[in-house]
């Protein structure tokens, strides 16, 4: 049994690491045009199968019914819709997301909450070190960008999707350290700094959301909250008195991007609006039944007659409705409701609860629902909370 646990912890550490190294494929580091390649974490995940086989006679943990309903529902809906619309391999990504969910659920059934968090934190610290170290190799690109900022700096990322997604993921990983006080604030400052260098608005917003949930979390003491309020008030007062916001926004491109939000110079939102204007027509043409997994952009491009560089709608809820219809979206929202309910019931003392809540909010502007790392977190969180409820029931 001990050797099984050691193997599982070794597997889990490497699997979580490879999930963060998203641009590492079985052939090496990928370029921006090689999104379809098999990632290293896909191949490595197969080592989980022996863990299941070793325990199959003793019984396997059963996942919540609403998670089953969601994945079975979107799979059946897609298979039916693929009769009328093109098959899209994104359905395989959804199935892998469920597999990843079960890995997390299984791991949390073998380890207690503190063990799980320690393993996650070890990997997350390593990832932070990689990203900070990587910045030093891109100093020339950063300097060039600072001199003539436009969009985002040309920096190689370990996460798929570019610098915006990299800022997003490190912001979410920051939440893993809400119980570490000093380390949390160091990592939060690091995340904010990286987001500013990347000119990533979503990175800044996610970091602030994590900080906000940390503030109201049961993991934050009353004295810590008082200190935060006092420092925030002092910083805001000094900022108002001493800083010329207009001049600062001209010098700091990341701040200027916030000021340009939704305007004619905001290329990011302009691209989204260009797609979304055809959303209603595409949805109506599908009779609210959807187009199948991964066919959201196919629907928009078919209606508009345009080709878009994006591979998703940059709004997960809109994407799910367009791809799986009303039934698929409702099945997902049931899962969101149940997870959010458990998150607030935990009083946000579980770092994974904060990650998931921030993800649900950030899904309004990005993500496509197949994010394996998020489904891993969901599996871990639901099993940890289930274990806690069982323990309380046994005590009573």
Explained architecture:
- With about 400 residues, this protein is mainly alpha-helical.
- It is built from 19 helices and two strands.
- A two-stranded antiparallel ribbon has the order 1-2.
- A hairpin with a 2-residue loop joins strand 1 and strand 2.
- Helix 1 (about 1-20) runs parallel beside helix 6 and helix 18 crosses helix 19.
- The radius of gyration is 22 Å and the shape is globular.
- The two termini are about 30 Å apart.
- The mean pLDDT is about 85.
What are its keywords?
mainly alpha, globular, 2 strands, 396 residues, single chain, two-stranded antiparallel ribbon, 1% strand, 69% helix
Describe the structure concisely for a colleague.
This protein is mainly α and 396 residues long. It has helices at residues 2-20, 40-44, 48-55, 65-81, 90-110, 113-137, 139-147, 163-174, 182-197, 201-216, 222-242, 245-251, 253-259, 267-276, 279-285, 296-304, 316-345, 351-362, 372-395; strands spanning 24-25, 28-29.
